[in-house]
Amino acid sequence: MNDKVFEPLDSGVVPRFAGMPTFMRLPVATPQDVDVALIGVPFDGGTTNRPGTRHGPREIRNQSSLTRRVHHVTGISPYDLVRVGDCGDTPINPLDLAASMESITRYYSGVRQAGAVPLTVGGDHLISLPILRGLVDKGPVGLIHFDAHSDTFDSFFGSRYNHATPFRRAVEEGLLDPKRTVQIGLRGAISDAANFDYAREHGIRLIFIEEFDERGAKDVMAEARAIVGDLPTYVSFDIDVLDPSIAPGTGTPEIGGITTREAQKMLRLLGGLDIVGADLVEVSPPFDPSGATALTAATIMFELLCVMAQSISDRKKKRN
Amino acid sequence: MNDKVFEPLDSGVVPRFAGMPTFMRLPVATPQDVDVALIGVPFDGGTTNRPGTRHGPREIRNQSSLTRRVHHVTGISPYDLVRVGDCGDTPINPLDLAASMESITRYYSGVRQAGAVPLTVGGDHLISLPILRGLVDKGPVGLIHFDAHSDTFDSFFGSRYNHATPFRRAVEEGLLDPKRTVQIGLRGAISDAANFDYAREHGIRLIFIEEFDERGAKDVMAEARAIVGDLPTYVSFDIDVLDPSIAPGTGTPEIGGITTREAQKMLRLLGGLDIVGADLVEVSPPFDPSGATALTAATIMFELLCVMAQSISDRKKKRN
Amino acid sequence: MNDKVFEPLDSGVVPRFAGMPTFMRLPVATPQDVDVALIGVPFDGGTTNRPGTRHGPREIRNQSSLTRRVHHVTGISPYDLVRVGDCGDTPINPLDLAASMESITRYYSGVRQAGAVPLTVGGDHLISLPILRGLVDKGPVGLIHFDAHSDTFDSFFGSRYNHATPFRRAVEEGLLDPKRTVQIGLRGAISDAANFDYAREHGIRLIFIEEFDERGAKDVMAEARAIVGDLPTYVSFDIDVLDPSIAPGTGTPEIGGITTREAQKMLRLLGGLDIVGADLVEVSPPFDPSGATALTAATIMFELLCVMAQSISDRKKKRN
Amino acid sequence: MNDKVFEPLDSGVVPRFAGMPTFMRLPVATPQDVDVALIGVPFDGGTTNRPGTRHGPREIRNQSSLTRRVHHVTGISPYDLVRVGDCGDTPINPLDLAASMESITRYYSGVRQAGAVPLTVGGDHLISLPILRGLVDKGPVGLIHFDAHSDTFDSFFGSRYNHATPFRRAVEEGLLDPKRTVQIGLRGAISDAANFDYAREHGIRLIFIEEFDERGAKDVMAEARAIVGDLPTYVSFDIDVLDPSIAPGTGTPEIGGITTREAQKMLRLLGGLDIVGADLVEVSPPFDPSGATALTAATIMFELLCVMAQSISDRKKKRN
Amino acid sequence: MNDKVFEPLDSGVVPRFAGMPTFMRLPVATPQDVDVALIGVPFDGGTTNRPGTRHGPREIRNQSSLTRRVHHVTGISPYDLVRVGDCGDTPINPLDLAASMESITRYYSGVRQAGAVPLTVGGDHLISLPILRGLVDKGPVGLIHFDAHSDTFDSFFGSRYNHATPFRRAVEEGLLDPKRTVQIGLRGAISDAANFDYAREHGIRLIFIEEFDERGAKDVMAEARAIVGDLPTYVSFDIDVLDPSIAPGTGTPEIGGITTREAQKMLRLLGGLDIVGADLVEVSPPFDPSGATALTAATIMFELLCVMAQSISDRKKKRN
Amino acid sequence: MNDKVFEPLDSGVVPRFAGMPTFMRLPVATPQDVDVALIGVPFDGGTTNRPGTRHGPREIRNQSSLTRRVHHVTGISPYDLVRVGDCGDTPINPLDLAASMESITRYYSGVRQAGAVPLTVGGDHLISLPILRGLVDKGPVGLIHFDAHSDTFDSFFGSRYNHATPFRRAVEEGLLDPKRTVQIGLRGAISDAANFDYAREHGIRLIFIEEFDERGAKDVMAEARAIVGDLPTYVSFDIDVLDPSIAPGTGTPEIGGITTREAQKMLRLLGGLDIVGADLVEVSPPFDPSGATALTAATIMFELLCVMAQSISDRKKKRN
User: Fold this and answer.
1) What is the pLDDT of residues C82-93, one digit of tens each?
2) Which stretch is the leader sequence (chains A, B, C, D, E, F) (predicted)?
3) For helices F217-228 and F260-268, angle between their N-to-C axes, nearest 10 degrees
4) N or C of chain F: less Cβ packing under 10 Å?
5) Which residues of F touch A92 (CB under 8 A)?
6) Which of E191, E200, E240, E255 is the mutation pick for testing F, counting most F CBs within 10 A?
7) ipTM of the complex
């Protein structure tokens, strides 16, 4: 612990375009320094079609210069509640998937031991698996998962570890409780009618876009909260849950997605949950020349940070 | 008829970025081979402002590599119900509008004689006229027409054949029954207050975006289905019916359009109609550098293909 | 006054891509010639982050070639009701903020004296201040302000004149009546929880996107109309009120914005108000490579023009 | 003739980004007003592959805002020597090639009768034919032709009038003297070994890039000047003579082209010739998102203008 | 062998924008069908920084629609000399580097056994190694290698197989004779002063851009020809040997590269060598939004094809 | 002074796409820490046309991740010779030109007092003036200035401080010795024939592109070295000296520029001069969507760093 001030740079002193881009213009930190650790995992070795999410953390850092301090709905700044810093990128090896998964796992064990709650930026969705391996130590966690895809394939191209399989592996490995798992925003044609069978058979709640469209954000989130309950829960936000007109810079875009207004409504309804970590994945800057997807991602991160900070702060107070 | 398997390439064997891009990664075929013929008409000689739809079929083939086999709502694959193949592009002459219209007409006569139902990708909207000329032989068909524009001008620049006139010509030529025609999503300023007079006087039902916005997809489609009834019906989808934030790559974008979620809802309500053909037009790749419009178009094609396949399959069964 | 015909070029004679781009393809004019003066203010010296709105007027002129004559809902052309012309750009000095503000103010005094109602295209939002200084002579006006941001900061980087402060200055200078001011579409994190205090303390009505989302366009506009009443009212439309997926080309994009369908609904409900002027600001072409934002802006201008023309025409008739 | 000042706007008073873009920021004029008439021909109906040159004149006008008054090598301003103005675009019909050719021809007859020398911006290369038809009245002219392609095909897609045939037609019609014609910069594979036979048989001098590369700009231009001699000569500059890294925005790019330094050297060696007109063609803005090709074209125009102005001025003096 | 005609589609019948894009618009073929096999290897698993070359083959096919039949310098068409076809893409596994290398090797063994000479499009530069493994059976071949980088690292990120190591591995494995190897166009800072030691110690001739700049294409190629002599030689063209202004779409651009005019001169001087295969690698479409790099690559392929076809044809005649 | 290692991150451990982008992947430092201080000045308040160079430092940092350690011609790493670090951006005020100039001046006084030699990245060219004000304390320095423009205007828009005037002001203020000043690469039309008078009258040596083209890099640099001699010399590199095909991302592009091969040759001939500082200016990322200009700038920075490091190291040795 140290005396560092964990505040974003003052945009009335250092213009938003100046300086080196860290997440949210926060100081560089170690997990030991902070309550919430902003971490990049620049790895896309699990990608089966269009690559590029390895460039995600850098560009999201860049665009996060446009974020500000205080949430306009609550009037509260996460930086007033907890210490938040940019912990940099985890070690990875772009030529070795297995080694990368190990070093990611090791890094998140360290985060857990430091007592920080990680808010991660990918990278492709495979990274959720080594993150959970590093993070989960006392039995499976719940999951609120925003995505166009279920990511519960058994394998792809004969490989069990890729961005279509992380949550199946996580269930198999006892990291994830499928009965406390809900996936929201699913849509798009599938390669096989049986693609959702595993999820259904294990009790994962699948909320397709059609159901979401009928019920709306509030109702869906009430159910999601009931599913995960008060126990430790992970949040995973795949940027492709958003409509491709909003977030084109991703590897597997699916039309007919949710809007940012809907996404923000949902994220604000995460308040009070016991969030043990969150990630935002699948932003691919080479397919996002305008930076719009990365800017959206940075703002989604801020929404996640706000609910995480509130929850951590509340629990701290309760403990005291 | 032959032993060819009319299935998309398996994306777990041949990655989506590999191989030559055919529509939906399907085999190359002739209309004789298939029940549904996917056809390109790379012609934009009827365009009055921004050109480029001649490049539409190629880029939509390219982006259609991202589509999959099974519809996530019905759980049914069109490829299990009917034979579908990529029949390539019709002959056209980029320097001769009249010759192009003739060769398109001739091509679609062949499609009709082969007994295949065409699902066409343009090209500008003028192509609907020669398609209907080739396709319609037993009296006028009905039309469900998704578009920002009515395309029932009498002439433009003194020319009676361009992308603002196809449906007026089709009514005049007895190819289209105006009383069984409905246009959905109309909007945008017009050059003359009388622009919709022809359509109104001949009984075409005009559903502007404002009415659509009030009533919603379900209600509007119930009326549309009633209008066309059980008789043979053509479906024409101009990509500019979608909002330009979703489909920027088109020649005459109009803000305030429908979303893909709304479009998908409507297209899924075409089920059971006697669809004798469909087209998707006005995708202009030079104005679509990211490929987003073409990807949207490919997914719309898949939605159309699903309802067409179901309907053809049902009718086949009934006949047996 | 002269014999000039104040009509857009006929798009059936001069194609939309031909000729020099004026606003709406209208004749070049002076404020003396017209009832509604379309004016550019190519100034971005008040911008604190991403620059480029100095290029706004030119690109919006370019994209306005796609607009047409007659509103499709009312069936009325503004050009049938009043004289409208492109009065060019105001003088500005890109190296001198104070001098630019003075020359803008002087220009708008001239517009007022000529009896024309200005519809301005920026430029950054600071320009609203010198416009109001030139335009307002008989006591403060009301304001309907569409924006993601309140723009009522006291200062930024120690400067009292920049695109975050115009409306606070306008209230202080007696140009704007805060009790007859409503801001719609506000959202996005803020740098300080006190950012909205000035507005609230002075009676400006703040309608955040969350409230807008609950109530809808009609209800919100009913309140907005009640707030400004029958007295002289200015309308300011910051393009960043729209969602960045629709209008990416702006300096301070905020996700979760309003759609063009919502915006158009609201603008059409301005009818009958005593609009003394309007502006559309913050379009930054360097961040809008596709031109989509400028095309959207041009169409928003047309919507504003239609309500302004109707209102001016009605008042003229009443006076006669 | 009138009192108008034919000077570009002063860039120290009106910033380059302000105002409506005319060619070189010059006043709008008629051919009667000026010695050199800058004219746009926004027509691409002769294009056989990638369209879009119809948008050329507008975007070149836009980018020409970056040009200045005085040539840095000679220290002379063309605007001091002759009157130059922007005469707008010729009438064309985007749906009718024959009608467009007629109206272009008619327009250039008028230019000739007005005594102005035209400097035209296309449009595709077919436009050189109707320009020459309108311009040439006293026997065939010579031609210095910068291009990657010879454009002396007999026909394409069965059509004798397209952008691959203008100079063959011009020879056949007695507009062009093939013995006084030189083509510089030719390169790129051809569809048939016989493609250059017509040119060779009729005495057109073909200078391929390989010969140009060996000899250099000075030597080649000495020969070109000898070929056309003192008699009336037309200059045609197809932007695709430049390397595609410099001028990507064109329909038929060929790698291995000339650089702008080489082009400028050659153009400056046109001095003193009896240039009866010049054109710059094949700039296609939809394939030039950055505007680099249009900016290059505008600067090439300025180089052409300088030699034309000097030559006209010298001849005027001689006559006096 | 069969009766298929191995000619590109006639661009006067099927426009260049129409139809499915194969390499050079040639028929789809198997290695058994042809003398020269055009093959794609869509694999970028060996890439250490910016990915995307997996998309290379498809986009180069697309852009190769702009190539033509007959070389303009020799007046000879490769298609008149030998049979050439598009053999599609090799099998690869985007998630498994080792498996991909094996399947590539296996594929090229088949090509060798079929007696076809392969002209390959990558993919990243690692693919040269499995290609050589499959192709070389009777002792090491020579290599003419155009590249900014030597690609003779021992390892990167602890991995011996990646796009920085293929030619060291090839020497070690006896596939490549370092004394008959020449690398042309090398440049750019290096991570370690020892980076070129291996190449130098084993007798590879390194021609840096500075030497090339002094001596010119002819002189350098005379030496290169002397180095490889009459024995079997492979040609490898990394697109990054070209200047990034010409070929921006690549993962490791280095400024100060060779021009296309220089490249074409060099490639034409490969005539008569015993070329057993060639590849063109490192085109990354996600970093090439305009397609300029892919178009350049397609034209380079045509140059390679011309010298290969001539050489094969000459050897065939000699044997007869 | 401290124990920090002033080495770039090892690209075989931390991939180039990972981590926060500092210049050359170097540690963050203060001027006190280093021999060569890499500094950003994100200010474009002196820009008269297209803005955006305020974004230059960040994007050049980003692209500099692609640079490496050792110069391939000399085999020497600047990081082995001297300590180099990223000192961040100077304070500036985007709304106040005078205040920004003062804070830049103050910052560079500090750099001078710390004994570091600054290598600066702009920002627009005005920044050279406050840099020189801060840096020069013992009489005027010499200047080698690479630029398309002389930047010796007296004023623009009535302002004496903008990016067209810095070197005139520097001469007037006794910071620059005009007789020891040489400008290389000048070109492009000028607004007034007298534009170069000041420079000529004061003995500045102007080398236009035409002279450069005749004489070549070596000869020109021999003269440049003679002009500045052994006395303290500043180097200023305006990215627009390069051809716009290479460096499109700048505010005032001029065709016909120098190539990177020519630029690198010239920069390498700066060796041994007494360089007291250098800057690289006018990179405007909003006009450089591909990042090509910023990557070029980063590599130019590395070339400058190498000669500066060598020179500083040599002088240090001499002193010892």
Assistant:
1) 999 999 999 999
2) none
3) 40
4) C
5) 15, 18
6) E255
7) 0.96
Verify whether the Cβ–Cβ distance B50 to C295 is below 8 Å: no
Query: CB of A100 within 8 A of CB of A20?
Result: no
Is the per-residue pLDDT at F19 higher than 70?
yes
- Distance (Å) from the C-alpha of residue E255 to the closest C-alpha of chain B? 26
Task: Tell if the CB–CB gap between C17 and B50 is shorter than 8 Å.
Answer: yes
Q: What is the pLDDT of residues F249-306, one digit of tens each?
A: 999 999 999 999 999 999 999 999 999 999 999 999 999 999 999 999 999 999 999 9
Identity at D37, one-letter amino acid code: A
Length in residues, chain C: 320
pTM above 0.90, yes or no: yes
Q: Do E186 and F72 touch (CB under 8 A)?
A: yes
Asked if B309 contacts B82 with a C-beta cutoff of 8 angstroms, the reply is: yes
**Complete DSSP assignment for A227-280:** HHTTS-EEEEEEGGGB-TTT---SSS--SS-B-HHHHHHHHHTTTTS-EEEEEE
Q: Are D10 and D4 in contact (CB under 8 A)?
A: no
Whether chain F has a CB inside 8 Å of the CB on D77: the answer is yes
DSSP-derived 3-state class of residue E85:
strand
The Cα-based distances of F208 to C102, F184, F215, F262 in angstroms read 40, 6, 11, 14
Q: pLDDT category, F3, cuts 50, 70, 90?
A: low
CB-side exposure of B165: number of CA atoms within 13 Å?
17
Contact E158 A47 (CB under 8 A): no
Choosing among 1.20.58.1970, 3.30.70.890, 3.40.800.10, 3.40.50.300, the CATH entry for B23-319 is: 3.40.800.10
Any idea where the domains of chain C sit in the sequence? 23-319
Report the C-alpha gap between A248 and A297 in whole angstroms. Answer: 12
Contact B21 E19 (CB under 8 A): no
> Nearest-CA neighbor of A265 among A239, A223, A290, A300?
A300
Phi-psi sector, F216: left (phi>0), alpha (psi -120 to 50), beta: left
One-letter identity of residue A4: K
* Chain B residues near residue E89 by CB distance under 8 angstroms: 14, 18-19
E240 marked as part of a ligand binding site = yes
pLDDT (tens digit per residue) in A231-243: 999 999 999 999 9
Q: Say how many C-beta atoms besides its own lie within 10 A of residue B133's C-beta.
A: 20
F287: which residues sit within 8 A by CB, 6+ positions away? C286, D290, F50, F52, F248, F249, F250, F251, F293
CA gap F175, F137 in Å, rounded: 8
Contact F159, C98 (CB under 8 A): no
Q: What is the pLDDT of residue A22?
A: 97
- H or E, element range at B57: helix B56-63
**Of residues B55, B61, B94, nearest to E20 (C-beta):** B61
Q: What is the CA radius of gyration of chain D?
A: 18
* Residues in contact with B168: Cβ distance below 8 Å, sequence separation at least 6, in sequence order: B151, B152, B153, B154, B198
Query: By the CB < 8 Å criterion, does E158 face chain D?
Result: no
B2: pLDDT strictly greater than 80: no
DSSP, collapsed to helix, strand or coil, labels residue E303 as helix
SS3 content of chain C, % helix, strand, coil (to 5): 40, 20, 40
Q: How is residue B206 written in tokens?
A: 């005009």
Which CA distances in Å does F202 have to C68, D75, E247, F124, F230? 58, 19, 43, 24, 21
Contact between D148 and D240 under an 8 Å Cβ cutoff? The reply is yes
**How many interface pairs between D and F have CB atoms less than 8 angstroms apart?**
83
